[in-house]
Amino acid sequence: MTPADDKKALHIQITQPASKQSHFSLDINLQLPSTGVTALFGPSGSGKTTILRHIAGLEVSNSSHIRLDDTIWQNSQTSLPPHKRPIGFVFQDANLFEHLTAEGNLRFAMKRAKKDQSVISYHDVIRLMDIDSILAQYPAQLSGGERQRVAIARALLIQPKLLLMDEPLAALDETLKQDILPYLEKLCRRANIPIIYVSHSLDEVIRLADHMVVLDKGRVVEEGDIHTLLGKLGTSFSRYQDASVVVVGTVTRHSPEWGLSWLTIGNQAIAFKQGNEALGEPVRLRIQSRDVSITLDKQDGSSILNRLTAVVDDIERDPKDPSQTMVRLMIDNTAILAKITAFSAHQLALQKGQSVIVQIKSVAVLS
């Protein structure tokens, strides 16, 4: 179902002229899915946080229209104040009450929650964010990652109909980011409310998002399902230095002696570094175009484990760097991008519809 077909979608129409605070005008018209994670992606100053603030009612424009389900939050006649909008908001900084323990912060949120609306239980939140052992501690005693996990739990316990997350990992160092990402992944997969996630990190977006809106200077540049958008040629992503695709499949085999797992897509499988994935569990992998090579036939004696049959679907020479060519390949119904030299594409005589072998290093597959 596309966002436009979903009568329960979040409708956002914002028109805001440039001001002293905002050096760009904002002009967007979006209808977003009512399930899953929508990422607002773009460089700093593209309007991502401003959109969240409008949705939350922290900024108001009389020419804007914001509606969730059948309830209007903002239009020329109506403007619900922030405390009457059923949202949870997670900021870059955890913004916890320093005089309250972690549990005290959560209990404060529960007092604000609407009694007739239950999105998630207290015990489910504690388990999901794995914070039972730190509930008695004060914010000053917590690490940055722990503080942010408590902040996410607090936002959920308001029992929101919509969760807004404004670059929740931006204030963390790389180690803490990697610590908290698995918790965000669990949240994004299990939450039964729509989530709007703001980021300028493509890694985060690929791991978490289902739908993506690309912004630049207050305008929508591209929008769509993340798997479709990343797998297209001619987009800003296909010309990105680390152009990647998201591959979703089921874990069908573990080889603990080699530290590998296998993900099945269609009738073929991709080996990747084993983590905590359970057999039968759906997993998404990121495959960068620069880690994919193409050969015309299977070669024995290669160190590359992943050699899959694919069909050339599209070919585009980079308009900014004519020495490079991007090839879109289909493995069953899954798109893979390969960034190769234009000379290699010429030597292989690649053509649309041609059957080839895609080679992907297992150590390069990112889970």
Structural topology:
Layout lengths: L9 E7 L9 E7 L4 E5 L6 H9 L8 E4 L2 E4 L12 E4 L11 H11 L9 H8 L14 H14 L4 E5 L7 H17 L4 E5 L2 H7 L2 E6 L2 E7 H5 L13 E12 L4 E6 L2 E6 L8 E7 L3 E4 L10 E12 L6 E8 L2 E8 H7 L6 E6 L7
Parallel strand pairs: 3-8, 3-9, 6-7, 7-8
Antiparallel strand pairs: 1-2, 1-4, 4-5, 9-10, 11-12, 11-14, 12-13, 15-19, 16-17, 16-19, 17-18
Helix pairs in contact: 2-4, 3-4, 4-5
What are its keywords?
Rossmann fold; alpha+beta; ModC_ABC_ATP-bd; 19 strands; 6-stranded mixed β-sheet; disordered N terminus; 367 residues; 8 helices; 5-stranded antiparallel β-sheet; OB fold (Dihydrolipoamide Acetyltransferase, E2P)
Describe the structure.
Residues 301-367 form the Mop domain. Residues 10-242 form the ABC transporter domain. This protein has 367 residues and is α+β, with helices and mostly antiparallel strands. The protein has 2 domains: 3-230, 3-Layer(aba) Sandwich (Rossmann fold), CATH 3.40.50.300; 244-364, RNA polymerase II/Efflux pump adaptor protein, barrel-sandwich hybrid domain (OB fold (Dihydrolipoamide Acetyltransferase, E2P)). The protein is built from 8 helices and 19 strands. It has helices at 48-56, 102-112, 122-129, 144-157, 174-190, 202-208, 226-230, 342-348; strands spanning 10-16, 26-32, 37-41, 65-68, 71-74, 87-90, 162-166, 195-199, 211-216, 219-225, 244-255, 260-265, 268-273, 282-288, 292-295, 306-317, 324-331, 334-341, 355-360. The strands form 4 sheets. It has a 6-stranded mixed beta sheet with strand order 6-7-8-3-9-10, sandwiched between helices. Strands 15-19-16-17-18 form a 5-stranded antiparallel beta sheet. A 4-stranded antiparallel beta sheet has the order 2-1-4-5, with helices on one face. A hairpin with a 2-residue loop joins strand 9 (211-216) and strand 10. Helix 2 (102-112) runs parallel beside helix 4. Residues 1-6 have low confidence and may be disordered.
